[in-house]
């Protein structure tokens, strides 16, 4: 059985190991059930935090983008429309597009806590339907753990 590849967003670093769902995902990765990576962009964002976060990020490999700029630009536009239909207004939003694009091109499931809350109703998770239509699977840590368990027969 092919292992599922998960990309962690910068907000899913779990450096203090306070998120039980991320702890279990990490254990599944340590035992070879799934694979976990960061995108290059999420790696840089997360590494810019504390030393604890930087050390945690260094535990994982990261994936970068291809050199096919025309392909990447086309997908950036599609992702922008899906997540930020009123335009991109910050570096953080541009980074979100890069993280999503990398997950798309790597065939990874993005694990994030961005969006689908009262304070951030849209965000990445709030755009999951639009992103799924583009072939980009985004899940909260809780949903990612359930998905990993279901796919690996560990439910």
Give short descriptive properties of this protein.
Rossmann fold; single chain; 8 helices; 155 residues
Overview of this protein structure:
With 155 residues, this protein is an alpha/beta fold. The protein has one domain: 5'-nuclease (Rossmann fold, 3-Layer(aba) Sandwich). The protein has a five-stranded parallel beta sheet, sandwiched between helices. Strand 1, helix 1 and strand 2 form a beta-alpha-beta unit. The radius of gyration is 15 Å and the shape is globular. The two termini are 16 Å apart. The mean pLDDT is 89.
Which descriptor suits the 3D outline? Answer: globular
Query: What's the average pLDDT?
Result: 89
Strand tally is 5
Report the helical percentage: 40-55%
The structure class reads: alpha/beta
Q: In CATH terms, what is the architecture? A: 3-Layer(aba) Sandwich
CATH class: Alpha Beta
CATH superfamily label: 5'-nuclease
Question: Helices and strands, in N-to-C order?
Answer: EHEHHEHHEHHEH
CATH fold description: Rossmann fold
Q: Tell me about the biggest sheet? A: 5 strands, parallel
